[in-house]
Design a protein that fits this description.
- The structure is a single chain.
- This protein has one domain (5-81): lambda repressor-like DNA-binding domains (434 Repressor (Amino-terminal Domain)), CATH 1.10.260.
- The protein contains six helices and no strands.
- It is mostly helical and 91 residues long.
- It has helices spanning 5-11, 13-32, 37-42, 49-56, 64-73, 78-82.
- One of its GO terms (molecular function) is DNA binding.
- Keywords: DNA-binding.
- One of its GO terms (cellular component) is cytosol.
- It comes from Sphingobacterium paludis.
- InterPro entries: Cro/C1-type_HTH, Lambda_DNA-bd_dom_sf, TransReg_Diox_bact_type.
Length: 91
Amino acid sequence: MAIKPQYFFLMNEKYAQIYTRIGRNLKKRRIELGLTQDQLAKKTSKIDRSKISDIENGKEDFMFSTLLELATALEVDVEELTKNSTSNTFT
């Protein structure tokens, strides 16, 4: 069950920053690979486009297994998606 963004951000700012960072890195990697959200969703077994959109925008509380599946689809280590760097390149 997803947490409504306004409650999520009030609940714990530190966690909200982490989810936002992961979403930003995920989107950056997806774009580097030339994938749409739909194409990325099709590379996973159970993650739909709207969930990917919510994750990329820091609006989704997701399970670690979801992060693992996205990292696999994006051909990157989970660590790369969690890094705190605006200059990340994944190639």
